[in-house]
Amino acid sequence: MKTLLVAEFREGKLRAEYSQLIAFAQQQRAEAAMFLVGSAGEVPKFNGTLYLADAAKYGEYNPTVHKQLLLDVIAKEQPAQIVFLHSSYGWDLAPRVAVALQAAQVSEVVAVDNGLPVVPVCNAKLRRTIKAITAQTVLTIQAGAFGMEAEPEGTPTVVEIDTGAAGKVQCTGYEAAKIEGVDLTKAEIIVSAGRGVGKPENVAMVQALAKALGGEYGASRPVVDAGWVEHNRQVGTTGSTVTPKLYVACGISGAIQHLAGMKKSDFIVAINTDRDAPIGEVANVLVVADLKQFLPVLTEKLGAR
Amino acid sequence: MNILICIKQVPDMESKFKINGEGTWYDRADLAWRMNEYDEYAVEQAVRLKEQVKDADLTVLCIGPDQVTEAIKKALAMGCDRGVHIADPDSAKREPIAIATMIAGFAKDKNFDVIFTGMQSQDRGSAQVGVMVAELLGIPAVTTIVGFAYDNGTVQVKRELEGGSKALVTATTPVVLTCQLGLNTPRYPTLPNIMKAKKKELLPLAPDVGGLGPRQETTACAFPEKKGGGLVLEGEIPELADKLIQLLKEKTTVLA
Ligand SMILES: Cc1cc2nc3c(=O)[nH]c(=O)nc-3n(C[C@H](O)[C@H](O)[C@H](O)COP(=O)(O)OP(=O)(O)OC[C@H]3O[C@@H](n4cnc5c(N)ncnc54)[C@H](O)[C@@H]3O)c2cc1C
Ligand SMILES: Nc1ncnc2c1ncn2[C@@H]1O[C@H](COP(=O)(O)O)[C@@H](O)[C@H]1O
After folding, report:
1. ipTM value of the model?
2. How far apart are the first and last CA of chain B?
3. Would the CB atoms of A297 and B135 count as touching at under 8 Å?
């Protein structure tokens, strides 16, 4: 199946995640070409055609410009699938392309089952299998769902592309992530608070357990967004990616973006009132309990050891 | 200013889900319902914009069965001026482009300056509808916003990127903005505002996808396979704590 892979480039750098697109294409045994608004000085390692627009000319991401460049390549290549990463770039650009092509769009593909894309729904509690009935399909693949056995290799055949399109929105700059204070990526033990803690006062229970275990405390995003815990302690795609020896998730449901930041921990304990919470999929131990009752008892017993 | 906010009603994600009879989606029975979390940020930002510019009219739109009027009423109690309910018992079966077509069909001749949507719905999670509305209307869209400022027809937003960095983006109205978690702190409707909301207009409309045919179908909806290996502990709290400590001693080195 003819496939066009859409690689990403930001702030003058090629994003390494392109290898996941190649892994997806290889798994489908698809005949792949690649698209990139990037730089000839830093091309992806890939054996195939690379349609390359010069980022220096077009500036940082501009949806209208990138859409037009992509549609021109699609008109020429006639791919059956156009594959993006499910990323801030992919979920922004993919629907624009799908609308223009009148193609089905399937978001956040985690697997392919008998040729059909499977996507998570309801906070990953359920999975849906989708069949596109249009000639072309636009897909975004979940970050981390398709990995390569080995590092990508090869040298693409570069075809330079161009457009006169201009867009109305303008990217005027970037704000870097704040990195100050504790660095969770170095912690060996992390106990994290999720929305299940209920109120800010209860974060203390999580901190107490972290202390009893001699580790650091972390949090899921809603707890950080609410201002109960500082941002540098957020675990997940928009926080830190951690790999401690022990990760304890307290009142955390296990959304994809959280799992992406902690699933490589050596040993995972989850404390949750919901037996079906998706965190159970990665947890070595799921304790079905109210954290407000369980944490103080556990902390006390650990202290008394 | 004329502002549209698109909201969806979704099940509480802590609900016990069951698969429907056709095996294509969840069964609607016995679920607790609420406004899609991402859309609460959209409503809040619109209300704040009205507080800033004073002269603004906020329309909140929701597509779904009659029950979704609960979510519309909440948005009205948060400060929206009027509600539009596209009464569609089949909305769950519709794909994003069909939902977007209905929204764009409603919005096309109403000159909205800003259309706020959520970045994604918690149940469907496609992150498609907002962008598609913009494309159908031929206006710009900026997705995943975590910061917003408006001044005299210009919006300046922060777009969240991976790893916590942000892009600073400028656009002029009309524009569609899809709201991300943490954009603001959504207010709780007060009792007087809940009472006031009851008197606000809530216009029912019939669904109209303008002859759009299906582009995809769901062949199956199911619980993910349990990968196994994980242990589930249930029972009395003190025993659970003892068991967990025992397991940590056996399986990890952290208690050494
Ligand atoms: C682009 C994007 C990026 C994101 N980045 C991140 C990120 O970096 N990190 C992140 O964490 N999230 C991120 N998110 C948000 C993510 O999708 C989820 O919304 C979030 O992780 C949910 O946090 P939570 O599990 O704490 O809350 P919820 O999903 O609300 O879960 C709360 C859990 O607590 C349980 N619970 C309730 N009461 C109790 C109790 N008394 N005792 C025990 N358990 C209880 C419930 O059963 C439930 O499972 C991102 C989302 C998007 C769209
Ligand atoms: N049934 C609906 N009624 C109104 N707005 C919706 C509906 N479904 C989705 N939306 C809007 O589109 C956004 C993205 O949804 P989705 O593409 O399903 O992830 C949501 O956050 C809502 O703002």
Report:
1. 0.96
2. 64
3. no
Enumerate residue ranges in chain B where pLDDT < 70. 227-228
Asked whether the bond before B174 is cis by omega within 30 degrees of 0, the reply is yes
Q: What is the pLDDT of residue A289?
A: 98
The angle that helices B129-137 and A90-101 make with each other, rounded to 10 degrees, is: 50
For a mutational test of ligand 1's pocket, the pick from B14, B122, B166, i.e. the residue with the most ligand atoms closer than 8 A to its C-beta, is B14
Taking the C-alpha atoms of residue B242 and residue B55, their distance in angstroms, rounded to an integer, is: 62
Nearest to A205 by CA among A270, A92, A292, A83: A292
Q: What is the DSSP letter of A203?
A: H
Ligand nearest to the CA of A228: 1
User: What domains are defined for chain B?
Assistant: 2-205 (3.40.50.620)
pLDDT at B121: 98
- Smallest CA–CA distance from B236 into chain A, residue: A289
> How many CB pairs below 8 Å do chains A and B form together?
246
**B50 near B27, Cβ under 8 Å?**
no
Taking the model in full, what pTM does it have?
A: 0.96
Whole-number average pLDDT of chain B: 96
CA of A170 from ligand 1 middle (Å) equals: 32
Q: Provide CB contacts within 8 A for B151, sequence distance 6+.
A: none
Give residues with Cβ within 8 angstroms of B51, minimum separation 6. none
**Lowest-pLDDT range, A173-187, A235-249, B2-16?**
A173-187
User: Mean pLDDT in chain A?
Assistant: 96
Region A129-140: what's the mean pLDDT?
Answer: 98
pLDDT of residue B163: 85
How many angstroms does the Cα of residue B62 sit away from the middle of ligand 1? Answer: 25
Do residue A127 and residue B221 have CB atoms under 8 angstroms apart?
yes
Q: Which residues line ligand 2 (CB under 6 A)?
A: B 6-8, 36, 38-39, 61-64, 91, 96, 99, 117-118, 120-121, 124-130
Closest alpha carbon within chain B to A271: B233
Backbone φ and ψ of A193, nearest 5°: -100, 130
Which residues does chain A have within 8 Å of residue B26's beta carbon, measured at their own beta carbons? 122, 126
pLDDT reported for residue B256:
77
Question: DSSP code of A142?
Answer: -
**Closest Cα partner for A136 from A159, A158, A104?**
A104
Q: Band of the pLDDT at A180, cuts 50, 70, 90? A: confident
Q: Is the pLDDT of residue A241 over 90?
A: yes
Instruction: Note the ligand closest to the C-alpha atom of A106.
Output: 2
For residues A92 and B128, give the distance between their C-alpha atoms in angstroms, rounded to a whole number.
8
pLDDT at B228: 66
Mutate to test the pocket of ligand 2, among B37, B99, B180 (most ligand atoms within 8 A of CB): B99
Helices (H), chain B: 37-53, 69-78, 96-107, 129-137, 191-197, 237-251
Distance between CA A257 and CA A172 in Å, rounded? 27
Ligand of minimum distance to the alpha carbon of B162: 1
Q: What is the pLDDT of residues A99-127, one digit of tens each?
A: 999 999 999 999 999 999 999 999 999 99
